[in-house]
Amino acid sequence: MRYQITGKQIDIGEALQTHVQTELGTTIEKYPGRPTDATVIFSKSAHEYACEVVVHLSTGLNVSAKAKAVEIYAAFDACCEKIDKQLRRYKRRLKDHHKERTEPIEIMEAVSYVLAREEDSKEYEEPDSLQPIIVAEMETRIPSLSVGEAVMQMELAGAPVLVFRNEKKDGVNVVYRRDDGNIGWIDP
Asked: Which residues, in sequence order, are bridge partners of residue 136?
C-alpha cells in the first residue's frame, strides 16, 4: 500500500510517519478490500491538531475520517478508530448481503465543474447572459455500482450525495441524504 503523509504548514517527522504507517496498516489489514493507497494530512489551527485520512480500496470504495485533538498523535489515533469503525460496518454489510464482488468496480470518467455563485447583495443586477461563470474544471470518476453499494459508499465517505452508474440499468443515478435523515434515490 502506498502512503502519502503530509502536513499543512507543519513538519511531519519520521517517528510520526512510522507510527501512521504501522497503525493504519494494522487497522486496515483486518478487513477485506485490499487497500491501494492512503492519504494522511495533518494541520494545525490555534492549539488543536487536525488529521484527515482517506483510504482508497481496490473495490472502488473510499473510506475517510477527520479528527481533532490537542496532540497530533491523538488526532491520528482518533482518525484510525473512525476508519476501523467504518471498515467494520462495511465488512458486516458485505456479510449481511451475502455478496462478494469478484471483479473491481468499473469506473467511468466524467468532467465536473465548479460554478461561481451569485452575489447575495441587494444591489445585484440581472446578468446579460444566463450562462454561469465556470471557476474550475476537473475530472471525476463515476463508479458502476448497485444501489445498495452506492448507499454504502456514500455513508463510508461521509458524503451528502453520490453520483453512480447503476449496474442493472446502465444509467446514471444519484443517491443523497435527505433532510429527514432518510436516503433518497434518483433513477431517471
From this structure: 114
Q: Side-chain half-sphere of 131: how many Cα atoms within 13 Å?
A: 4
Tell me the pLDDT tens digit for each residue of 126-158: 666 777 788 888 888 888 888 888 888 888 777
Q: Kindly list the domain boundaries of the chain, sorted by start residue.
A: 2-97, 107-118+131-186
- In CATH terms, 2-97 corresponds, of 3.30.980.10, 3.20.20.220, 3.30.160.100, 3.40.50.2000, to 3.30.160.100
**What is the residue-wise DSSP string for 97-157?**
HT----SPPPEEEEEEEEEPPPP--TTPPPPS--PPPEEEEEEEEEEEE-HHHHHHHHHHH
pTM reported for the whole predicted model: 0.59
Q: How far is it, in rounded angstroms, from Cα 61 to Cα 57?
A: 5
What is the CATH code for 107-118+131-186? 3.30.505.50
C-alpha distance across the termini of the chain, in Å: 38
Q: Are 87 and 33 in contact (CB under 8 A)?
A: yes
Compute the distance between CA of residue 185 and CA of residue 162 in angstroms, rounded to an integer. 10
pLDDT digits over 82-133, tens only? 988 888 887 776 665 545 556 667 777 888 878 777 665 456 566 667 777 8
Contact 12, 21 (CB under 8 A): no
